[in-house]
Amino acid sequence: MSAAPTSAAVEASLTALAVSLRGVTKTYDNGVMALGPLDLAVRKGEFISLLGPSGCGKSTALRIVASLAAPSSGTVRVAHHEGEMQPGHGIGFVFQEPTLMPWTSVRENVRLPLRLGRVPKAEACERADAALASVGLADFAEAYPRELSGGMKMRVSLARALVTDPDILLMDEPFAALDEITRFRLNNDLLALWRSLGKTVIFVTHSVFESVYLSQRVVVMTGRPGRIQADLRIETVEPRGEEFRTSTAYSDYCRRVSAALAPSYSGQSTL
Ligand SMILES: Nc1ncnc2c1ncn2[C@@H]1O[C@H](COP(=O)(O)OP(=O)(O)OP(=O)(O)O)[C@@H](O)[C@H]1O
């Protein structure tokens, strides 16, 4: 029998974790059991993807991490904050829709979280411009959302999530509505940002290919109520690029992730 870990060892392992969900369940008021029990630990700086059938609770899990929804039971730890974390504190959220304010400029859209946080205007504008530069939109601060392509709007949405310099970036199918070429380009840019900024990323996607390309770990969920079906580490030469996307290793990983997903749609799951 192994010895019980010391409290110092437990503390050290918690320090390395950005997010820890233990036995988390979620039953909505209408009786839908969306989630769990779900156990998930994400290390600081890790890039993981959550993949699973529609309605298995992926968005619910993200919303719980962001304190936008409360779990019905279980424990949620986000970095060192337990229970009393301010909603959204230390967290940036990117949704599938860019949800930009059409009546104002790109800069004002990106500045919004800082305005809500009462950051002085000059500093907020400077930080908004820096966030726009980080997503390749330095020249579009004065533009209006209607003047941007779908991919550019998503970049603005990403800049808005980054402008508060969050430790954790939660992304809920951000590129699902984009064409393949724009999506590939944004995948590469997101990876470059992740490498340079060192954020923890939890990325929800329906795409096996996207999850394998982007992530260090692909977490496959079962049908509703969502639990962990498989947790696969993607090990490859970094930084990833087109050589990886066209490699045998990439297609092997895609095959393994697809196989892990198969019970969700082949009738063997508890859906
Ligand atoms: N506010 C809510 N009230 C009641 N039921 C909800 C609510 N939000 C989500 N649900 C239900 O919970 C389940 C999980 O929803 P969720 O959006 O988390 O799944 P998902 O895996 O993100 O789905 P998709 O991949 O289709 O976006 C679904 O059955 C959904 O109908």
TrEMBL record:
Domain of life: Bacteria
Keywords: ATP-binding, Nucleotide-binding, Transport
SMART domains recorded: AAA
Isomerase among keywords: no
Molecular function in Gene Ontology: ATP binding; ATP hydrolysis activity
Domain ABC transporter: 19-248
One Pfam family, short name: ABC_tran
Keyword field contains Transport: yes
PANTHER family assigned: ALIPHATIC SULFONATES IMPORT ATP-BINDING PROTEIN SSUB 2, TAURINE IMPORT ATP-BINDING PROTEIN-RELATED
Family per similarity comment: Belongs to the ABC transporter superfamily.
Function, in words: Involved in beta-(1-->2)glucan export. Transmembrane domains (TMD) form a pore in the inner membrane and the ATP-binding domain (NBD) is responsible for energy generation.
Protein name in the entry: NitT/TauT family transport system ATP-binding protein
